[in-house]
Amino acid sequence: MTDCKTCALVERRDEGTAPPWDSIMRTPGWDVVHSYNSALEGWLVLVARRHLTALAELTDAEADELGPLIRRVSLALHEVTGCAKTYLAQFAEHPDHRHVHVHLIPRAADHPVGAIGPNVFRLIGDGVGEPVGRERMDELAADLRVALAVDRR
Ligand SMILES: [Zn+2]
After folding, report:
1. 51-97: per-residue pLDDT in tens?
2. How much distance in Å is there from the Cα of 111 to the middle of ligand 1?
3. What does pTM read for this prediction?
4. Tag placement on the chain: N or C end, fewer CB within 10 Å?
5. Is domain 5-149 annotated with CATH 3.30.428.10?
6. How far apart are the CA of 84 and the centre of ligand 1, in A?
7. Which of 90-111 are b and which e, b meaning 16 or more Cβ less than 10 Å from the residue's Cβ?
8. Where exactly are the structural domains of the chain?
């Protein structure tokens, strides 16, 4: 799909030209990246490496990877951001990103009251606040890589 910006970002990772924040970890089925337009530090996205528009299109292998990946990345977010829990959401509705991607969002103990639950989506896109800077996202990516390298089985 040439008009899918998510596919273009996957291709950039395949070419090895993605910045660290946009290529934190890759598995056979999924890319773990920092959101490029969120005001919340540590807002991660698990991106299907194939162009899928619905979760029902996942292969068994892709689905089998997803559960453990959600746990593993959540543990890393707890360690790096000190969050109290993580939120999980999948819509694939933005016109540029109709491609399965799962938001995995750290919710801090002192998280803004106005961004609790589904309202956390005020902190992405054209919502509240400045997007996290590229340098800070790269720092977070480095810390997350260290946390993800720990064997937690
Ligand atoms: Zn796509």
Report:
1. 999 999 999 999 999 999 999 999 999 999 999 999 999 999 999 99
2. 32
3. 0.95
4. C
5. yes
6. 32
7. bebeeeebbbbbbbbbbbeeeb
8. 5-149
